[in-house]
């Protein structure tokens, strides 16, 4: 936070008198003195519609007085030098008070500081007691975050391996995600039940991954120490599975729907946390701020999830299943604090999850028609690693084709302009397109794609012949030339028909 400090020498003024004068200077400036120590006064400037309060610290030690001003409201820069102005104003008020303050006011200020010191000590003791109470309830200092870190590590590792396999970092390849275990309805409902779990470790792009891992860490900081590693792990996995089941149910009429990501499980953890926060397991002074911030997080993300491309059904499924799991855990935690060990809690959560998932999958089985088709496509992607490169080259060819054809069929040009445009634009673009497609002949793609490339090369050659014939027609409009042009156009149409199938 931006900060500025200044120091002056006190000469013959003793520490207690200097603090009393500092107390008076703050009062004269309209500042609030909040806390006092043996050598320090801590205060703040008033807040108004255009200024956040500044934190003012006065320290008297070694015959010197140091005053510092710090921005504590999240500012990154002190563009208007508010800190420097505040310290300068204090030193001016201190000098004035030193000259004008009556002796009885000095004594009254010393007494006020003594009272403030006692209140400060009491507040510090209360804060320590509250911290100890929170720690006893949530075990924040007695546990590490090994499970949370492990889940994050697995997600990052899977993302890296998938990226190396062609899944994409920013622009994603859905077939690779399906290969790795995303929740693709046609496959999940036709036998791949394990996708309910694996999909929670797969992400569509690095932004998706980073946002989810950040949200997991923020809730894991509180939940893993409080629940313990076993309950925490089971809650994460089970709410993730149930979120996937709800996603299947919501998108049941879309066989090709493809879902993945840890957000369902993460919403499950936030739902579980909300259940804990709705009880008195967590001390009130911490419960209310957390309840408010998590409530805002959940509402915001659910509203944001209404936009296209976000599986909000999984979010809701995770949230609800986590909330219900949370109340099972609440009962368990209360009994454990009474000295009772409930060994059945984790098995019950697992059984409910497995039973729900198994029941839904059995009642909504899907045929193998779509399954065989998508598996063939996945196999094609796995076997032929240059498919994306081929598609990129083909798309580039399409753009070159548009530029070339626009000239060939432009009837607004004069003869001379038409010939020049064919030479400068159409012919070079067809030459570039031909070179581009010839590069694909050595790519690792399917036989069908190689055949497509051969057809495109033949198509380009015919287009180049068409240009040559059109040039000839400019000077020789004989019937034989027209026949030659029509034959070439028919061949072009025949190749186009093959390409469009």
Descriptive account of the structure:
The structure is a single chain. The chain has 501 residues and is an alpha+beta fold. It contains 18 helices and 7 strands. It has helices at residues 15-29, 82-100, 103-138, 146-164, 174-180, 185-188, 195-198, 206-227, 229-250, 263-277, 284-304, 312-337, 345-363, 369-383, 387-408, 415-439, 447-475, 479-500, and strands at residues 3-9, 32-36, 40-44, 54-61, 64-71, 183-184, 258-259. The strands form 2 sheets. A 5-stranded antiparallel β-sheet has the order 1-5-4-3-2. Strand 4 (54-61) and strand 5 (64-71) form a beta hairpin. It is flat and about 120 Å long.
Helices and strands, in order, run as EHEEEEHHHHEHHHHEHHHHHHHHH
Choose one word for the global shape. Answer: flat
| SS-based class | alpha+beta
* Measured distance between first and last alpha carbons: 65 Å
Low-confidence stretches: none
- Total count of helical runs of at least 4 residues: 18
Oligomer: single chain
The average pLDDT score comes to: 85
Binned strand content: 5-15%
Biggest sheet record: 5 strands, antiparallel
- In percent, how helical is the residue content? 55-70%
As a whole number of angstroms, the C-alpha radius of gyration is 37 Å
Instruction: Give the neighbour order of strands across the main sheet.
Output: 1-5-4-3-2
């Amino acid at each position: 936070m931006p900060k500025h400090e200044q120091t002056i020498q006190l000469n013959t003024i003793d520490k207690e008198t200097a603090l009393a004068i500092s107390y008076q200077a703050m009062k004269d400036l309209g500042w609030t003195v909040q806390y006092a120590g043996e050598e320090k006064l801590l205060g703040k400037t008033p807040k108004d519609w255009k200024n956040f309060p500044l934190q003012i610290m006065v320290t008297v030690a070694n015959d010197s007085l140091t005053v510092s001003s710090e921005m504590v409201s999240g500012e990154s820069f002190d563009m208007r030098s508010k800190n420097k102005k505040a310290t300068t104003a204090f030193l001016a008020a201190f000098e004035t008070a030193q000259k004008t303050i009556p002796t009885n006011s000095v004594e009254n200020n010393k007494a006020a500081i003594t009272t403030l010191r006692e209140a400060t000590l009491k507040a510090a003791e209360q804060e320590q007691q509250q911290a100890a109470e929170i720690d006893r309830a949530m075990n924040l200092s007695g546990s590490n975050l090994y499970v949370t870190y492990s889940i994050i590590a697995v997600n990052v590792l899977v993302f890296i391996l998938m990226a190396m396999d062609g899944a994409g970092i920013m622009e994603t390849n859905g077939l690779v995600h399906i290969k790795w275990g995303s929740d693709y309805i046609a496959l999940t409902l036709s036998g791949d039940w394990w996708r309910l779990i694996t999909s929670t470790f797969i992400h569509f792009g690095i932004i998706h991954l980073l946002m989810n891992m950040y949200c997991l860490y923020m809730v894991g900081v509180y939940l893993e120490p409080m629940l313990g590693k076993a309950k925490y792990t089971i809650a994460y996995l089970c709410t993730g599975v149930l979120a996937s089941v709800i996603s299947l149910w919501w998108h049941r009429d879309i066989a090709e729907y493809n879902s993945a990501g840890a957000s369902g499980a993460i919403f499950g953890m936030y739902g579980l946390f909300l259940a804990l926060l709705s009880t008195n397991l967590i001390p009130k002074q911490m419960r209310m701020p957390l309840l408010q911030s998590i409530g805002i997080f959940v509402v915001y993300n659910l509203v944001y999830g209404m936009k296209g491309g976000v599986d909000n059904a999984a979010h809701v499924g995770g949230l609800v299943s986590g909330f219900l799991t949370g109340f099972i855990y609440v009962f368990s935690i209360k009994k454990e604090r009474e000295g009772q060990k409930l060994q059945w809690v984790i098995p019950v959560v697992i059984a409910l999850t497995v039973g729900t998932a198994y029941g839904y999958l059995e009642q909504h089985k899907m045929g193998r028609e779509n399954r065989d088709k998508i598996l063939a496509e996945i196999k094609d992607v796995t076997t032929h690693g240059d498919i994306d490169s081929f598609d990129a080259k083909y798309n580039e060819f399409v753009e070159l084709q548009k530029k070339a054809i626009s000239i060939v069929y432009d009837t607004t040009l004069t003869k001379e302009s038409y010939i020049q445009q064919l030479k400068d634009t159409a012919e070079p673009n067809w030459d570039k397109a031909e070179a581009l497609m010839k590069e694909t002949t050595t790519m690792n793609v399917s036989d069908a794609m190689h055949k497509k490339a051969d057809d495109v090369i033949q198509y380009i050659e015919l287009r180049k012949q068409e240009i040559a014939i059109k040039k000839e027609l400019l000077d020789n409009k004989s019937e034989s030339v027209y026949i030659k042009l029509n034959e070439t156009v028919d061949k072009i149409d025949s190749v186009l028909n093959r390409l469009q199938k």
